[in-house]
Amino acid sequence: MAWIYLVTAGVLEVVWAYAMKQSHGFTRLWPTAIMAVTMAGSFGLLALAMRSLPLGTAYTIWTGVGAVGAFIVGIMVLGEEASLTRLAAAGLIVSGLVLMKLASAS
């Protein structure tokens, strides 16, 4: 169950990061509200996952899912650049996440 909490927390991290971008510096009400709610949910689920997963594993997976997810949303929704270098960097993050999961005993 901890892994489900952790991946969901990572997905919520992507949502709050996107909402933060859409809030235009917290000047728009609904994106700011969505950001606050999903941020709280993300932190809460991360805390639940950390009950049984090691700190280093949980935090690395959480930030990695959020980083790669935000990268994908940036490209697909916001039209950000998808250069070979940026794609390679995202690939390295994903490979690090896979290795971290494989190294985890839980």
TrEMBL record:
Example GO BP: xenobiotic detoxification by transmembrane export across the plasma membrane
Transmembrane segments: 33-50, 57-78, 84-103
Subcellular location: Cell membrane
Keywords in alphabetical order: Cell membrane, Membrane, Transmembrane, Transmembrane helix, Transport
Leader peptide range in chain numbering: none
GO cellular component term, pick one: plasma membrane
InterPro entries xref list: EmrE-like (IPR037185), Small_drug/metabolite_transptr (IPR000390), Small_multidrug_res (IPR045324)
Molecular-function GO terms, alphabetical: transmembrane transporter activity
Membrane-topology descriptor: Multi-pass membrane protein
Pfam families attached to this UniProt entry: Multi_Drug_Res
Entry-linked PANTHER family: GUANIDINIUM EXPORTER, SMR FAMILY PROTON-DEPENDENT DRUG EFFLUX TRANSPORTER SUGE
Entry's family note: Belongs to the drug/metabolite transporter (DMT) superfamily. Small multidrug resistance (SMR) (TC 2.A.7.1) family. Gdx/SugE subfamily.
Name this protein carries in UniProt: Guanidinium exporter
